């Protein structure tokens, strides 16, 4: 009733305050919205994360509770993908969201220049476009950020301004995630995406990796889960291409970036560009066995008791906090990403004396 209406009005005033501060920030950058967005988007991904949004509000000297910051972020994140793209930033700044028109002739020249340099590189390197893509994708995510594209093109002697990089990505970014995947990169290079070809040694590569993983697993006993945890350096529950490359290097298996792409692509069933535990079991050639064993394990009842203990502690903590469960979540989510990693969850439970 009345209380909810009052809360809604208070939140709308808070949104208006944020919009006013962001407009002032744009003015400080000479009224250039794109330049302001680039300054906030420190990673050059074309998207602002929760933690970056939190830092902006802090730099603007807006002291807000974590739960309020999360609510504001969710309100401005119109597509609900957990990041703010340029169009959503335009909305915060109160600028009508109209696609900016490019000068057709100027953009065509830019596109032709980039395509010519990419083709030259591919011709010099026996047609290996995938290797070029892998070299540009420095974090091994399977998608090239604006900053990675700018650096990669610079190494091809193509120097582009920030605005030109934005225009280029905007033109070829078919799924509008602010980054370039391999198919979109093929389009930039003027090559129509077709069926992806496997390197002729892919089968041998797969068998070599399986043999090494099995050997290591045998050395650790039934240690496949432990091996997975060692490879998953950031504790996210999924192994990135870069983590996989480093792990294989530690096993004395040195692979090119392109080979890593082929290997991950072969086992990445959900297409997210990373390897989860079930996919890792398949790489090791023992898919499904561990999952069945876990379901029959006598440890299940112990896990159930652990789950109940954690739930009980979280409920008590939520009751104690003025902000409820949402505030507890915000406290655990240390980097403000909107999701809690295994490491953040472990630290949070440790602080609750649940080691």
UniProtKB/TrEMBL annotation:
Q: Which Pfam families match?
A: EF-hand_6, EF-hand_7
**What keywords are annotated for this sequence in UniProt?**
Calcium
- Matches recorded under SMART domains: EFh
Q: Note the PROSITE patterns from the entry.
A: EF_HAND_1, EF_HAND_2
Q: Which GO terms describe its molecular function?
A: calcium ion binding
Annotated InterPro entries = EF-hand-dom_pair, EF_Hand_1_Ca_BS, EF_hand_dom, EFCB6
Ranges of residues in domain EF-hand: 64-99, 124-159, 160-195, 219-254, 255-290, 320-355
Any idea what this protein is called? EF-hand domain-containing protein
> What organism is listed for this UniProt entry?
Pinguiococcus pyrenoidosus
The opening ranks of the lineage are:
Eukaryota, Sar, Stramenopiles, Ochrophyta, Pinguiophyceae
